[in-house]
Amino acid sequence: MTAVIFEQQGAVARIILNRPEAKNTLNAEVFVRLNEAWEEVRNNDAIRVAVITASGEEDFCCGGDLGSVIPLWTGARQPQNEIEEKLLADPMIVDRVMLKDRPLHKPVIAAINGRALGGGCELLQATDIRIAADTAIFGLPEPKSGIVPGAGSLVRLARQLPYAHAMKLLLTAEPVDAVTAQQMGLISEVVSPDQLQARANELADIVAANAPLAMQAIKRTVLESHTLPWEDAFKLEMEQTGAVMMTKDAREGPRAFKEKRKPVFKGE
């Protein structure tokens, strides 16, 4: 059984963490396969949006596999197979899996089916639209074990949430439910578990129908301008806006509106 399932349906990629028996924790195979999945999304022009979710009903991802990958990194045990050797040979793989080293400018939707703890909560911070089942739980429990949530949360969380909410999650290490997470701004919507995948797919179809170069320019500008001075940020915005305005898609949209039909965007 593969630890990460990758599916493509038209312009939508679906990435499914598939270790429900192990709380969908991140072991060597998950890191390697998830990195490969992100690269396919990044490099495949036919893919316009990705949905990341997990198998099972209890866990989205409960962080790193403490009995497997952590001892591997600390040297407490030696690699047992090619996948583990590949993980150890690539020191930047965690940054790429968490979309830190190479930000992904295509939209990513998270469908959070259960507990998102530790690295799982950090992974969802790398996504753009976050839909959670009302049974989902979110938390960064690392300080309870003497470590820190250093796979993105120390930088991303206080930029994505109001400061006081971010620091409450980081410093108490206490979990919150889906409704509280939405009130904090950590997630976009809360739905019943039986509606989760349908809602995520609905949003993916909506995003995929938009002009792909426009979507990528929007995300790129938001990510890259976030810490820039206003003058530089507006300059970047104008550069990206101008680039999109020169595309064939920018001409197709108004033409389709005038002709009273749906636009056919080709990413050109």
Feature tags:
268 residues; alpha/beta; 2-enoyl-CoA Hydratase, Chain A, domain 1; Lyase 2-enoyl-coa Hydratase, Chain  A, domain 2; 2 domains; six-stranded mixed sheet; four-stranded mixed sheet; globular
Describe the structure.
The chain has helices at 28-43, 69-74, 82-88, 93-97, 119-124, 153-160, 163-172, 178-184, 196-208, 212-225, 230-245, 248-258; strands at 4-9, 12-17, 49-54, 59-61, 108-112, 115-117, 129-133, 137-139, 176-177, 189-191. The chain has 268 residues and is of the alpha/beta class. It has two domains: 4-208, 2-enoyl-CoA Hydratase, Chain A, domain 1, CATH 3.90.226; 212-258, Lyase 2-enoyl-coa Hydratase, Chain  A, domain 2, CATH 1.10.12. The strands form two sheets. Strands 1-2-3-5-7-10 form a six-stranded mixed β-sheet, sandwiched between helices. Strands 4-6-8-9 form a four-stranded mixed β-sheet. Strand 2 (12-17), helix 1 and strand 3 form a beta-alpha-beta unit. It is globular, with a radius of gyration of 19 Å. Keywords: Lipid metabolism, Lyase. One of its GO terms (molecular function) is enoyl-CoA hydratase activity. One of its GO terms (biological process) is fatty acid beta-oxidation. Belongs to the enoyl-CoA hydratase/isomerase family.
